[in-house]
Amino acid sequence: MENGTVTLNISNGIGTIAFFHPQSNSLPGALLNKLAETITAAGENEDIKVIVIKSTGVKAFCAGASFDELISIKDFETGQRFFSGFAKVINAMRKAPKFIIARVQNKAVGGGVGIAASADYTFAVKDASIKLSELAVGIGPFVVGPAVERKLGTSAFTALAINASEWRTAQWAFEKGLYADIFDNEAEMDQAIEALANKLSKSNPEAMMMLKKIFWEGTAHWDTLLSDRAGMSGKLVLSDFTVNAINSFKTK
Asked: How far is residue 173's CA from residue 183's CA, in Å, rounded to a whole number?
């Protein structure tokens, strides 16, 4: 459990993927790879008609990159490999031939915003504020940027990326298109997720697959794009500025 977990549960055509890490559902490299592999496997499983992605625990939906792992990176190759984990998750969600519903039960930071943006339909509670904090620690939302910009638009993405220390409310995220629906509490959200997932599990799989391809038109180059973006972050994480910023952030 201290290294985190990723589980897949299949019931009535719904594949529910749950991830967990004790540090506010932050994502170290091994967990990112496991999450990407699980999403790909769910997309290939004929018993699954629709995928739900959620996190467990009472803290954040996802706190983004693991600071412990970030601070341990000492060379470019390791840095690029780490940030490629986020690229793998986003591309796995993009390529899955099934609709993906995201359940955001609390705050989302950095890579967590990227996961919410890469889902095809995202539910959230009213307390699910968002923040792209990368610039505040000397990097930038390079890998998640294409997914966030695609869903929210350039203006909203720019605002999030530049004002990296400010939380944006769930209502703001709803108005910009990141969240399709927001709810007062988790119980109401879960009822809505169950209702939509059950409807989709009975819908025409071929029609949904074709719609998904249409939704993601123009992103075929993302395998290369996100890998290149991972290299940007992999370079910056080695800088003295970033090392000092992360250490300072960790002591707060």
From this structure: 13
CATH of the domain at 108: 3.90.226.10
Let me know if residue 201 belongs to a domain: no
- Cβ atoms of 101 and 197 within 8 Å: the answer is yes
Determine how many CB atoms are found less than 10 A away from the CB of residue 243.
16
pLDDT, tens digit (0-9, with 9 covering 90-100), for 53-89: 999 987 899 999 988 898 899 999 999 999 999 999 9
Domain that holds residue 15: 5-185
Q: Is the pTM of this model over 0.85?
A: yes
Structure tokens at 179: 């969240």
For the record, the structure tokens of 101 come out as 């519903």
CA distances from 251 to 22, 29, 244 (A): 18, 22, 11
Q: Does residue 233 lie within any of the structural domains? A: no
User: How far apart, in whole angstroms, are the C-alpha atoms of residue 15 and residue 117?
Assistant: 19
**Considering the domain boundaries, does residue 214 fall inside one?**
no
Q: Is the dihedral of CA 102, 106, 110, 113 positive or negative?
A: positive
Pair type for strands 121-125 and 181-183 = parallel
Q: Could you tell me how far CA 88 lies from the centroid of its own chain?
A: 11
Beta bridge partners of 8: 17
Whether residue 218 lies inside any domain: the answer is: no
Give the chain's domain count: 1
In this structure, what are the phi and psi dihedrals at residue 142, rounded to the nearest 5 degrees?
-70, -45
